[in-house]
Every structure is written in C-alpha cells, then in structure tokens.
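2024-03-11 09:14:02 INFO receiving multi-entity request
2024-03-11 09:14:02 INFO entity count = four
2024-03-11 09:14:03 INFO echoing inputs for audit
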Amino acid sequence: MLIRLGYDLRFDLPAPTVMTTLLHVHPSRCGDLREPDFLHVEPRVDVEFFHDLFGNLATRLRLPAGTARLHSRTLIEDPGTVDARDPLAPQLDLAALPPAVLRYLMPSRYCEVDLLSAIALELFGGTKPGWERVDAICTWVHTRVAFSYAKARATRGALDVFTERVGVCRDFQHLAITFCRCLNIPARYAAGYLGDIRVPVAPDPMDFSAWFEVYLGGRWWACDARHNTRRAGRVLMATGLDATDAAITTTFGASTLTHFEVISEEVPGDASRAVPTHRAATA
Amino acid sequence: MLIRLGYDLRFDLPAPTVMTTLLHVHPSRCGDLREPDFLHVEPRVDVEFFHDLFGNLATRLRLPAGTARLHSRTLIEDPGTVDARDPLAPQLDLAALPPAVLRYLMPSRYCEVDLLSAIALELFGGTKPGWERVDAICTWVHTRVAFSYAKARATRGALDVFTERVGVCRDFQHLAITFCRCLNIPARYAAGYLGDIRVPVAPDPMDFSAWFEVYLGGRWWACDARHNTRRAGRVLMATGLDATDAAITTTFGASTLTHFEVISEEVPGDASRAVPTHRAATA
Amino acid sequence: MLIRLGYDLRFDLPAPTVMTTLLHVHPSRCGDLREPDFLHVEPRVDVEFFHDLFGNLATRLRLPAGTARLHSRTLIEDPGTVDARDPLAPQLDLAALPPAVLRYLMPSRYCEVDLLSAIALELFGGTKPGWERVDAICTWVHTRVAFSYAKARATRGALDVFTERVGVCRDFQHLAITFCRCLNIPARYAAGYLGDIRVPVAPDPMDFSAWFEVYLGGRWWACDARHNTRRAGRVLMATGLDATDAAITTTFGASTLTHFEVISEEVPGDASRAVPTHRAATA
Amino acid sequence: MLIRLGYDLRFDLPAPTVMTTLLHVHPSRCGDLREPDFLHVEPRVDVEFFHDLFGNLATRLRLPAGTARLHSRTLIEDPGTVDARDPLAPQLDLAALPPAVLRYLMPSRYCEVDLLSAIALELFGGTKPGWERVDAICTWVHTRVAFSYAKARATRGALDVFTERVGVCRDFQHLAITFCRCLNIPARYAAGYLGDIRVPVAPDPMDFSAWFEVYLGGRWWACDARHNTRRAGRVLMATGLDATDAAITTTFGASTLTHFEVISEEVPGDASRAVPTHRAATA
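2024-03-11 09:21:47 INFO inference complete, emitting structure
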C-alpha cells in the first residue's frame, strides 16, 4: 500500500523566532519512503538538521517575524497491516531489560510515575503481566477518559487526566504510559501520521496523532489508548519520554498557528503506479 | 589536592529486588582517579555496567532479599579550586546552541518549565542575560527557600518548591534549573560528592550533594542554588534532566535504607604522598 | 436608574436531577426591586427556598428528566453610580476585625491561601496596607492574566491562575481574593448581574458576572480584578468563600446547558415611567 | 464515666501576634462539663469569645512577643459508649436533606470533590448507599493510607492523600470526607479530644484528634477513617468543612510550638467520687 503523507502549517510570528521541528518521517521508516520527505519553509531560511537525544530527526529554524509556512508532501510504502503483535512476547524481568530501555520506566513531565504508582497497582495489579496488562490499561483509559478538543490543555499531566477524565490524543497516551511504567512495563510516547486507513472515516479533520509503545519480549510495539484498536497506516515521526520530546513543532517565543492541514491517505491503485516516476525524479 | 571519596550504604530488602545505581565517578573525571572506583556489593552479585541516556556510568544489580551493602573507597586528584567561571561566557542565542543542548530548555518531571515561565519572566526578565541572570536566580532561590531535611519529599517539583519555600538540596536546584530553562538558559541537574573542602565544616553528616549546570558560552558550568557560593571539591557522578535521572540508587520495589555514610575529604599532605603506591596497584 | 434584569437558562437532563440555584437578587438588594424577582421553572415543580450558610437566597428544585427551563424578568432601582469607595477606610488590624469576617482570611477550595502566601508577600508586601494594596493586587491580576472563554476550566484554582495566566471572570477574582487574604485583607467572592451600564458595550454576550469584595474600615466593598475599573450597575446575587458557594446553579448529576441568556440593561426614561404599572401589578 | 481533659500548649512568638483558637469543648457538649472549661492564657491577655460560621466556640487572642502558654483542665461526663450508630438510618435523597446540610456535599480547600468524583464513583459506586458505603470508604482509606507523623504536611489535600497514600489523622479524614461528598453523603470535619478510652494504650503521645461526621437518616454520626473502629470517649471541640475550619489554633504570623501536651483519660472510680467537690467549686 502507498500512503500519501503531507502537512501544511502556517504561523504568525510577532518577532524573529527559533523553532525546532520533528516534521520528518522517523529514521526507522526512511527506507519505505518513495518520495523525498522534505520540509519546505517559506520564507526561505536555513534548515539545520540534527538527531535529538531519542534518535529522532529534528530541524532547527530561525524564522523572521511575519508569516511562516512549513509544508511537505511525500509518499511511503506501508504493509497496510494493523499494528503488529506477538502474543507470546513476554513482559521481561527488570534484570533482563536492555539498559537503554530502563529510562522508560521512570517519571517524566507528563507521566508522573511517582504519583500514580499506588493507583496503578490497585487498578491493574491483579492482571497478568505482559499483553493482558497492557490491554487492560488501554481499555481502562479508553473507556474512562472522554475525548474533547475543546478541553485540550498543554500543561495537563497524567494525574490531571486521571482526575479530569477528559483530554485529547496525547492525554490518553500519557495516562496509559504512566500506568505501564508504574507496573514495570517500559513505555514511550510516539507521534506521527495516522490516517483513516481501512477504518470508517472519522469526522474530525486530519491531525498528527499520538500513540505509545511498550517494550515486551525484546522490542517496542505500538499501542493506542485513544482508539484502543489495532490500526493500519501509522507512520512514526518521533518517540520520546512524553509529549515534551515528541512535539511536532516547538516555538521558543510567541506564535499563532493560523493554518493546520495534515494528509495521510491511501493512494488508490492507479496513482500508486505513478510512483516510479517520482522515484526517478528523486534519484 | 587529593580527595578521599567513599560511601557505605545498606538496605533492607523484603524481597529480591533490582536496583540501578549511579555510584561511580562520572566518566569525565575518570582520568583524575588515583585509585579504582569500584562498587563493592555484599552479598556478592553480578554488577552489570552500562552508560545511560545521559552518558553516566550506571550499574544494575539483582539483589536477593535481606541486607544489601554497597560500598566503595577511592582517591581522586582535584585542582582544589572553586567552581570555574568565565565572566565573558555569554548566554548563547537559541540558534547558536549545540542541538544536543536544546533538550535542557524543556520541561522534565520536577522542572515544570511550562508552569513557571510567566513567573520566571516576571522575576528575572529584567536581569541581563547570562551570568547576571544565573546569579540572580541562584541568589533568589537561596534566599527565599529554607533548607529542611525534615520536609524532604520525593514528589516535590519546582512549582511546589516555589509555593512551599522549603526543601532539600535537590529542591533548590530544581527550582533554579526551571527558572534558567524558562529564560532560555540550558540547565541540567548534577549529583556527586561535595565535601567541606576549604569551607567551615558543616554540622550535617556528609551526604551526596546535588547541584546544577548551566550552558553559557559553549560549555557547562557548575552552579549551586543551595549554597550559592563557588565551592571547591565537587566530584561529579551523574547529570540529567532532573533528580529522576541522577538518583544515586533507584530501587524497583520496597527497600529501607538502614545505613548511609559518605566520605569526601581532603587528604593531608603525608597521606597524599602515599598515593603513587595505589596508582601502581591499579596499573 | 432602573435596570431590567432577567435570565433564561435551559438544561437537558438525562435523568431526574436535584438542582440548587442562587438565581435571586441578594437579600440586601430586595428593597430596590420594582418587580418581583420570581424564578419560573418549566416544567412546573416545587421550588423550595432557603438561606444558605452565607445568607444568600437559594432554591432547591427536583427536576424530571428532559428539558428544564429556568427564567425570570425583574426590574431594580439602582443609583447608577460606580462602585463605592471611601479612600479613608483603613485595613483593620486583625484584632479589630469583626469575628464573622475572620473566615474570609482563610483558604477555600479555589483560593489556596496556604500555597500563595509567600508569593503574595513578595509581590505586594511593599505596598501600603488598605486600598493601595487592594488596587495593586487588582491591577496586577488584571494585567498579568488573559481573559479566555475557550480556556475556562471548572477545577482551576488560584494557583493555577497564577501559573497559567489565563482564565474567565471567576479566575481573576479567585487570584485577587487569595492575594488579599494572604495579606490579611478579608475578601469574599461575589456573583450577580453586571450589564454594560455606562461603559462601551462589550462584544461578548451577556453573562452573569463574578467580582469580589474586600473588608476595609468596617464594611465590604465591591472590587473587580477582571475589569479593574469601578463600574455602575452591579446587582449582587450571592457571596461566599469562592465560586463553590456562589455558583448560580449547582446540578447534582449530569446536565447539559443548552441555552443561556442573561439580561441586565438600563431602562430608558420612557420605559421607566411605565414601571408603576408593574408595581401595581405586584401589589 | 468521667474523663479528665486538658491541654498545655506553648508558643514562641517573635512579634505580637493575633491567634484564634477552638480550644473549648463544643457547645453541644457543654451540658456534660463537670468543671469549667476555661482557657488560661499566659501572659494574661483579653480573651475574646465568639461563635464562628459553623457554631463552634472560638476565641481571639492578641499575644505579645515572647512565650505564650495556653492551658486548661476540665472534667466531662461521658456515657463511655462507643460511637453511636443506627444501622437503619438511610442515606437521604438530595431532595430530602435539610438545606443547611447541602454545603457539606461541596468542595472545600482540602476536600477537592470536583477532582475526585470520577474516582469515588469507580471505587465505591457499586456499594449500597448509606452505612455500607461509608464503611467501605473508611475501610478503604484506613487500609490504603499509612500513618506517618514524619510526613505531615499542612498543605496536603485529599487528592495528595490519594496519590501519596500517607498522612496524619486529618489526611485520613479529608480523603474519606471527600469520597462521601462525591457520592452525595454530606460529610464534615470534626476535631476534639480522643483518649485511649477502653482501647490498648497507643504508644504515641496524646494529641488532639480529627475525625469526621456523616449525615444519615436525619443526624450527624461520628466516623473515623484513621482508626476505622468505633471508639469511646470522643469529646467534640469543633466541626467545619475541613481542617481549615477546625484548626485548634490559627496564628496570623510566625510562631513556633515549643510544648504540646494533651490529656484525655478516664478518671478511675475513686477520683470520680471526688468530683462533687469540683462541681461545688464551680457552682
């Protein structure tokens, strides 16, 4: 399956501003790209690339005051299958986890593991370690938290989600991540494209999406407490401890988002045949 | 100057427990060691070494139920001078910061940059960027927060410190780090040895100490909102986003600390002459 | 001056629900009413009147499932002058305050006096007690907090307002009340009608309004950190510790507000002459 | 049974200070006093009596700088029976509650009903209304929260207790009160004497005690999530929304408590026979 990806973001900047972005397909998926994934910036400025602490491909931009437009269109090959799962992948003992994974058991800004541990144990301590526990957590969060764009709040942490029972995509994942960590399942935040691939088209306009990953049996697996269903068509852009690390754009200074458009849709058969041309074009 | 370093920690563990430690001198200071810095564990268990996300030398231990003892004694050469400072090192523009440093401008568990930004701007927005701002922050925190071991609390974040005005070493640094980040000065948490080198001996028993580092003019500099004075004899063990990343020991399960002893003292002249023997022994 | 007052609220109730209201003009203003201030409820249910702990005139309703409509129209005589002020009214010593006023120095749900005391002292400790201090507080809150209906949140307390710097009417007053209490000025929450009397007409649709009162020199005075200007035409409905006590309606169970209309406007001369008829009608 | 009651509190006051106290036996128990319950203050100052918003007998003192001593000894007759309970007293419908009781369903400073409602419903929504629900709440709190004087914190609210799972007497009651209110059971905070009457003597030194009251079937009943057992010998001093309203002493300014002694013990038979003399003395 080929998926057309793209975004078009516009900002009003009252003053010259530094912005960092995580607007590229994650390095782990670069091999699947069929067109270049190139961040266009208007007005034209230097785009400085770097890899952040978590291995994401980031950019830093120095934007002048005025209107800034960031956009891209690319094409990616995707198996089109739903989120992978090996039911036999076990929850590893703490002594068996790769050391690099241990940090994903600890608290972070929006995942207050220290505050939610007793609660997590109460709610999920009786479940079987591993997938059963992860599923119980996702279902609980999905069922008990209501989705509301109107109640989005950038400072909401997992404890707030737990008491307020409302949030947007990131809030669902933060609470689920925190519960997983409390119960010794490494969990990290993930952001990327998620179109309505092979599901009924949702009424909301497309947005980037947040999900999370758990570490079971030697690898990371995508999970999603927001939708609580295995989905096709996730295209990862960034992972990190929580939304702090995987914000698509971070602006150091005042800015107003004036336009926001994201595309992530399956390309029908005919269109996909046209791809080699594109590939040639990029060679 | 030679500094004798060491610790002796004992824990009661009701069940087999995994523990991670950051009990070694930081890799950046390994060249100064005049004796091996070796973590002894009783009972004897395998000690697994790894470097964490922040470049610290960490270990993982699988301890049986019962009493566990962790101890070490080593010797380090130290210039004996107080915390370095180049008054000409400027606060760098966001576009000029090394990309790896940018994460230290963002929120972390105990440094709620998103919650304290307006406050930081109010308090310190009028100060000159760079050292003057860092000094103003340290002095403010040092003056307004009272030290109290009795009021230590593992879940206290910078906002709590700001409202409660009380804390231990880590709390002072968390608040100062947060204010620095709010004002675009990269700041990170640091933990290590800090003896009463060339200062009047404090009445408190020795402990590991927390301080923080700011990034000015192209390098990190040690700062200390707890003592608010340049000190000699800091021996770094770990750095990270906040205390989450630089905890000397992290126990995944119940444990009781039953004994805690830390040594960090200047070795008088005669004793220091004995060092070459030690050095030979480690060769 | 005569002011036409009224409201029309409609709720969808999925199940039979108990509601309490504070929808009447405050007992202290009853003498100014020129028409009855009568809560009409549709469907017709018994309206039980009581005075709450703070002396407000409250009602309790037992509403069936379905649509409920609460409405009233009344007319009140008002001096039309702006909020009274005696610049000579001093901040009373704690020993001189009437005992009944002391509770208004203490914390309440949305006014965390215990958390904001050090901050209040820092910000306003240098101001002169009394009106100068109250004015400094109102100006500070008015200047530093941004108004946003979109960011209303029922659980936001004064500390949240202080860090988030955004809110609706009640949030401005909560922060100002808290600062006043921290500095030993009794302060209480007030809710009522506030039309655009003798001020340029605001673009927002009419709503009930929140303000607060401080106790200086032996009486309560209306203050308003939201508008930070002395206004004409406030008609008090309820006072209390904070918004908890002065909520216009409190629903014990699920409900959706489907219609909300408030009227508070000066009656032009001709219309006001028609009033005696109304008064006769109520005789 | 006769119970000897008394206290001896001493404070260091760096400056002249206003203090309010709730150091008298509650008006509802005055008829049981067999000796006057008289607050002695040293140095001698005027003691101003008043009844607060909740009907407690309060005093206001204007103390000079230096040492202040507050003490009393009195004798009260007590049935010596454990906390009363009528298992048939039902949880009243919201429409049937006396209006004055409705405030005890709402949030207060340390009882964040708005934050804990979803949680309360989850934990206790399946229990039978009335005593069964109250008992479930008390048992839950008693079982899940650990008592620790060392971790007392004046700013801890019910949500903190829920996440931290540790506290002193007041914290247990705050969480239980909040859960009750969330589930439409009116609940209020209570403070008073509680000696080791007919229970094994506890190792802790005597203190005033906090408990709470629920409103079932037309009256208030004493409950105690700290001890979770029906006790004899409670002597009420004050009730209120939470600890804010029932603090034994409230000092408006700096003060250090240097001595704290509370007596509440059964007078053995012989001693009690001596009482008529005292009674004569008070006649």
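2024-03-11 09:21:48 INFO post-check: The first strand of chain B starts at residue 2 and ends at 13.
2024-03-11 09:21:48 INFO post-check: The two ends of chain B are 21 Å apart (CA to CA).
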